[in-house]
Amino acid sequence: MARQKTNNQVSGIQSKMMVEKINSIHNDELESWTEEFWQWSCHIYQNQDVAKICIAVQDTLGLNVNYLLLALWCEQKMIPMNQVIWQKIQSESQQAVDAVSYIRAKRLTLKGKSEDAYQQALLIELKAEQQHQKQAIQSLFKQFQGFNRNLASQANMQAYLETNQVNAEDQATVQQLGQLVQNISQI
Asked: Own/partner pairs for 98-102, CB < 8 Å, 24+ apart?
């Protein structure tokens, strides 16, 4: 009886260690995705044409720049997304979106008043954008674990635009962003 109890304890400890190892691997991969997406976004957004299109569709269509970039990054990574995934990402990241919007509004009130305060607000907004991306990646990662990315192929940008009910005419403008990013990424 004592031997069986000891074997069960060992088995339980081994199971717990295995779960911890799997969680560690998942956490490392999640951190890798988060950092890779942030670095890629910074690289892509440095292009003035990309920034101009992103801001234009953000201001005119109400689309989120981080989600536009996420759609494009996922397409390059062959990570398929659909409307259900987009809805979950947007829902789970809403607090971060609200925080970025609030910080951006405050920053814009500083424009032309205090350059130092404006630059500090810009840095805070950038950190909030990074946090938003992290939350979006975490949400995506939860849904994507164990999924074979080669099983499905869906245009991520198309799914994002449809989720946000962007009409066909405006979709053409946003698709220019996709072509531009593709060209930059190949350099």
From this structure: 99/128, 99/131, 99/132, 100/125, 100/128, 100/129, 100/132
Quick check: pTM over 0.85? no
Q: Contact 79/160 with Cβ under 8 angstroms? A: no
Handedness of CA 76, 49, 70, 160 (dihedral sign): negative
Report d(CA 153, CA 125) in Å as an integer. 34
Q: How far apart are CA 124 and CA 66, in angstroms?
A: 16
Cα–Cα dist 32/159, whole Å: 25
Determine the structural domain holding residue 69 and report its residue range: 28-95+125-185
Residue 120 lies in a domain: no
Instruction: Please report, in angstroms and rounded to a whole number, the separation of the first and last CA atoms in the chain.
Output: 67
**Span 86-136, pLDDT tens digits:** 999 999 999 999 999 999 999 999 999 999 999 999 999 999 999 999 999
